[in-house]
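Run: sequence + zinc ion -> complex structure.
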Amino acid sequence: MKSIKTKWDLQLLYKSDSDPKIEKDLRLIEQLCESFAKKHKGKQFTKTPQTLLKILDESEKLNELMDSCAPSHYFHFKTDLDSSDDKSFAISTKYGQRLTEASNKIKFLGLEIAKIPLNKQKTFLNYPALKPYKYLLSQIFINAKYNLSEGEEQLEDLLSQPGYGMWIDAQEKLLNQQVIKHKGKDIPIAKAMASLSDMSKKDRREIHKKITAILKSISHVAEGELNAIYNFKKIMDKRRGYKKPYSATILGYENDEEAIEKFVSLVSKHFHIAHRFYRLHAKLLGEKKIFLADRGAKIGEIKIKFDFPRSVNMLQSVLAGVDKEYLNIFNKFLENGQIDVYPKKGKTGGAYCSGYGKLPTFVLLNHVDTVRSLETLAHEMGHAIHTELSKNQPSRYRDYSIATAEVASTFFEQLISEEVEKNISKRELIILLHNRILGDISTIFRQIACFNFELELHENIRKDGQLSKEIIAKLMSKHLKSYLGSAVEVTDEDGYFYVYWSHIRRFFYVYTYAYGQIISRALFEKWKEDPSYANKIKQFLSAGGSMKPEDIFKSIGIDTSNDSFFEAGLKGVEKDIVKLEKLAKGFKISK
Ligand SMILES: [Zn+2]
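>> structure
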């Protein structure tokens, strides 16, 4: 392979901020949407299957072009590399609005199709030439009863920025300005949070207290924000006729509401597995009782460093072992500058993979040479491979449901973990296994506790109108306790972490983490049993959004409708805990 780039090359999108192609792309989309609307709006294109087919083919061509339109993404990526770049931030918002207005013009198409009466829908669904659109049509028909008038739909799209997005931005800005004063130093709050698990017990608990105090002191803003956005959702849900606070999310991810309700209650009934882990976690830390500050505390160091070149080598060999195409995708990303590797002042924290339509996919990392950094690389490349393979789908099916996203990413994470295991000592293996279970507990049980917390928050705000910051904190403490169990002491003050928890601002999407994690474990086990299962995994990674998630998994031999499937997944986590309990007998934390 050619040499590796460790910085994003945004020229893959545009040559520079003043590239004339930016305005040209925007105009093209605006004009095409405009003329599409002029040509078809008010015409009777849903009269027969043939007329519908014609307009769908035409709109598909338009969507393909929109899938290559990058202006707002380009500027958004720039602000993620440099948060002080206010200019790019403003431009990205402005262009985002222009594109929303353009796509609003063609919204009538879906709304008109949704009006096809129930008794005629079958004729359309079974018309042979419409087969490529069958799933799309069936989704439009299912969602039809929640549609509003065209004007209202457009208004919601535009109002969701000031009624939702801008509230969250304001809250985030306030949060990002907070610093923790410790030992004469000012530590930005995000950094303090991220490094809690690495600190000594004394520092960790002290800083945790300081963070809580700061979160409490600015909670009046989060109180206003949450009450506003939860009420905005309440108003829209009522208008659209969604029965429950989570209905829109689950339907949007193309899952079955009843199945997810059953799943959430099943995980909640198994919180005792999480309790068992935290008892062991406390023991491994050498404590009888621990505090929330110690929830993610390390029990030891894995000394080997995974610098980026080494991480690349390891991931390359793992990917080649499953499918050569995965390796080729990874190499192409490295050569083209689609991965931004190292932390930098002003760069956004954490890691993500962003792929939209046919645009090049970009991966953002903050690689600091730890095992976790290596696992994150594998995780994000899992998303990237899923995204790249889904690009072979037509525009209408290119986006995959969030319910399948984490299955892909955690599958690749498991692959790399297995590779790491081969290279470490027994003591390090204990630490690694501990960290992995800690991650699983967070992904499965913590996220479902979060779901339960959100639900109660929505229900109470719907009932009482508004909730005070103190009551929200109390609710949060209650749900933290529910999954942490009696080994972890949670105070009312700890409840103020809702100020920080970004998940509760993306209503109910957390269940997809738990759901995806369990399915991905099953995928991994099947592949371990029979390497030829790799073909099925590729089939799943290439399916995009062409079927319901349940049906995609069914097609590769995983039946999520079977009650015992998820239960077996949860028992699998418990088995890992038992394994760690045995392995760690006599383990002493180095203080
Ligand atoms: Zn992910």
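>> summary
The CA atoms of residues 534 and 564 lie 24 Å apart. DSSP finds 24 helices and seven strands in the chain.
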